Write a sequence for this structure.
């Protein structure tokens, strides 16, 4: 398989995994953090959900990182492809470059801040 | 060998509104736009731990209570759920399972995965939020 095709296959594979993560894990995160907490709906009572999730050190941090990183990659990859289908085909290379920049910076930032909030996550449970 | 093609290549030009031509294209485009909400929510949510980590927890929580952000989150949940449902249906179409003489249908994959989604969501709430 040519190198470019192999790289494309790997990137598509990650995109697909991100699609599963966005389908199975993102809806519940949006609900508890973005809707249930500010509106005081079930199951939130008092403490904000991000703190509750991070209190479960390893599992909570892993859940937040996997959900946000996987969804970000999937969302950006698919959205830049959508923009090329909406008349921005000429800017495909620029959109791809911008997309990967956002993905890399976003994932590194998520890892950095989650590690700052839970430095013990790197040690074994 | 000459690189010239023996016949002129016809390149169909599509305008930005091609997806309004029929309902299948429109559905496709709505499905693709779910990615906008998935990506933007992820970026907003990455911003929140950054505020937590820099000691601005109150600002982070106030951001979540902003009516504009809540409205966006409601839309994001709707579009993400639509992404989930169409993704589950596609799994059934792309990878049908053969059992003896019968082959699974896409709607069966949809139902099984909706059930899985509910189990995963309740597990996350039970283990990470309520405990």
């Amino acid at each position: 398989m040519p190198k470019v095709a192999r790289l494309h296959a790997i990137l598509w594979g990650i995109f697909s995994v991100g699609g599963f993560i966005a389908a199975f894990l993102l809806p519940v995160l949006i609900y508890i953090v973005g809707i249930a907490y500010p509106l005081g709906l079930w199951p939130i009572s008092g403490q904000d959900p991000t703190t509750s999730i991070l209190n479960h050190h390893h599992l909570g941090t892993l859940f937040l990182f996997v959900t946000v990183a996987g969804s970000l990659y999937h969302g950006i990859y698919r959205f830049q492809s959508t923009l090329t289908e909406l008349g921005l085909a000429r800017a495909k290379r620029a959109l791809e470059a911008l997309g990967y920049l956002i993905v890399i910076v976003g994932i590194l930032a998520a890892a950095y801040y989650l590690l700052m909030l839970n430095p013990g996550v790197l040690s074994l449970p | 060998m000459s690189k010239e093609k023996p016949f002129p290549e016809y390149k169909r030009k599509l305008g930005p509104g091609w997806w309004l031509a029929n309902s299948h294209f429109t559905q496709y485009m709505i499905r693709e736009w779910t990615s906008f909400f998935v990506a933007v929510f992820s970026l907003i949510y990455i911003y929140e731990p950054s505020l937590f980590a820099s000691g601005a927890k109150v600002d982070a929580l106030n951001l979540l209570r902003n009516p504009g952000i809540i409205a966006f989150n409601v839309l994001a949940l709707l579009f993400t759920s639509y992404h989930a449902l169409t993704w589950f249906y596609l799994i059934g179409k792309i990878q049908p399972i053969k059992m003896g003489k019968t082959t699974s249908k896409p709607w069966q994959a949809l139902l099984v995965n909706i059930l899985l989604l509910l189990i995963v969501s309740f597990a996350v709430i039970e283990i990470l939020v309520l405990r």
